[in-house]
Amino acid sequence: MTEVILICMAAVIILCLLISLYDCNRFVTVRYEVTSGKLTKPCKLVLLSDLHNKSYGKDHGKLIREIDRISPDVILTAGDMLTAVQDTPCEKALSLMRQLSSRYQIYYGLGNHEQRLHQYPEQFGTVYDDYVKELSDCGITILINANTYLPEYNVAVCGSAIDRQYYRKFRKQPMQTGYLPKILGRPLEGACQILIAHTPQYFEEYAAWGADLVVSGHVHGGIMRLPVLGGVLSPNMTLFPKYDGGRFIHGKSVMILSRGLGTHTVPLRIFNPAELVVIDLLPAK
Predict the structure, then answer these.
(1) Which residues are CB-neighbours of 261 under 8 A, at least 6 positions away?
(2) pLDDT of residue 149
(3) Residues 6+ apart with CB under 8 A from 6
(4) What average pLDDT does the structure give for the chain?
(5) What is the pLDDT of residue 142?
(6) What pTM value is reported for the model?
(7) Parallel, antiparallel, or unpaired: how do β-strands 27-36 and 253-257 relate?
(8) 60-72 pLDDT, tens digit each
């Protein structure tokens, strides 16, 4: 009986590893519609998040071809396009950004990995400064607790870079009252306000700040997805996170949470392929 159990366990482990190998090397395109009475015309967004230096095809060929097929008006990145490790390579992330910036308007919000590069120059040297300069030089707008206005659509895009204490492990760190208005200012009155916020954990706080649409990543879909239960594990090391991927609503705010395009540290994705997210922003009828 013990041998049978061990054989079954081994078979399950091998199956999961094969599924992970498959899911780690493919992406699916998912599409959402979000309506707002504040929009003056439709706006098609592509959301990129958590690439972590992954490349689909030679020099991102598969990913770029799919983005070109979609032909977005604007690209948003929700951070972690590279991984903060010693001798961090930037070229894969930069190659994708350079190629896309020659075709599309890009607004870049930071993730915790970009923030870590910035916070620890004694460990990472000038990697952060060099990376940000390269992005800026190719025309990408980097939003670090800053808001910008797109008059063609009556859309404002704000990129948040919250303190690293809000990425702590094992439990949610309560956000201080008034923290978001302090670092972000106020939403642009009358505009459809988009907030690029890497971690989805504070969706209620983002909604209270005044975001009409929040775009997030960070959770990688929960690494492994189970029927009904959803994502299994968050980067905060909490089981079955409330926000794991998809569309969420709080009051008048909508959050679109990408399951990300890559992995880091432990390269696992089980029943959880990477995602390229398309958001059709439409005026309310």
Answers:
(1) 27, 48, 49, 50, 51, 52, 54, 56, 63, 274, 275, 276
(2) 98
(3) none
(4) 91
(5) 97
(6) 0.94
(7) unpaired
(8) 999 999 999 999 9
